[in-house]
Amino acid sequence: MEHVHLAGEDEDDIYGGFNDYNATLDTGELEQDSAFQHAVRTSHGRRPPPTAKIPIGTAGIGRLGTAAQGRVGMPSSMGARPVTGSTEARPMTAVRAAGYTSAGARGAGFDPMNQATSQGPAPPLETMSQDSPEEKVKLLEKKVNELIEQSCISNSKGDYSAALDKAKEAGRQERALVREREKLNAQDQANLDLTYSVLFNLANQYSANEMYQEALNTYQVIVKNKMFNNAGRLKVNMGNIYFKQKNFPKAIKLYRMALDQVPNTHKEMRSKIMQNIGIVFVKMGQYTDAITSFEHIMQEQPDYKTGFNLILCYYALNDKDKMKKSFQKLLTVDLKGDTDDEKYTASVVEILK
What we know:
Layout: H1 34-42, E1 75-76, E2 79-80, H2 133-156, H3 160-183, H4 192-208, H5 212-224, H6 235-244, H7 248-261, H8 267-283, H9 287-300, H10 304-316, H11 320-330, H12 347-352
Antiparallel strand pairs: 1-2
């Protein structure tokens, strides 16, 4: 207790004043306090609700702009909000950003250019006229394809005259199609495949009707056109026509020209052309040249018909040893499951009779 300090009677009470009452903290007289009521009315008491409606201006319903023209005052904690550009400063107690409102265009989509109120729905698409040049081109293409198909069907039925008439009509319609494209300045959109089909079908129908010169002329048009890929192979068809006309030298020339157009990888096609060349040599009585063609085929891609023709050529030359060797090689040829004897009847037999 000797270290405890007790306050003397002459010292101030350190706990004094805590129970004293301050009249300024009394809330019972606030309703009669004019200064407090003035502060309430000019500040917190006039604060606008969050969903307050904005009066409609002269610019219509929508987001307010930044220009003073067309703007209306907004309620704020200091009373009416001054518009932009006015001399009165915006009070620090404002609760809204300048130019923003949560009301006005509620529920409307994003339309910053205000186009929804000035334009109606989009007009319906215009229907294309049946007489327009573009529509004529489409109809002509369809007509040409139909005529080519009808021509091929008639040929398969043996009605060669009707097939030729359809082929000619397809040619006329195709030329009309070219003229329509020229009117549209759309020559670069020419359908080369369609033109090729028209010419090729027409040449075949001429040949089927034994109009060989017309067929040759049509084939020549195709072969000379550099736009047609691999058209040079059609010289085989031209060689076949010369063969039917018994113009054998011309046929051999065209067969060899066609052979030059076929790559070495297409062995089957090259063998067929070489076989045609051998048959023509047999027709001309040049058995040695025919043997050269047949021997080449038997080395590259042997088949039963070529082997039989080779034996007959050696028979014509009375070469028995070569006949024996050729027959032994013929026995090794795979028939590929086909035993139709008529298929392997060589055309050389007819020649040697």
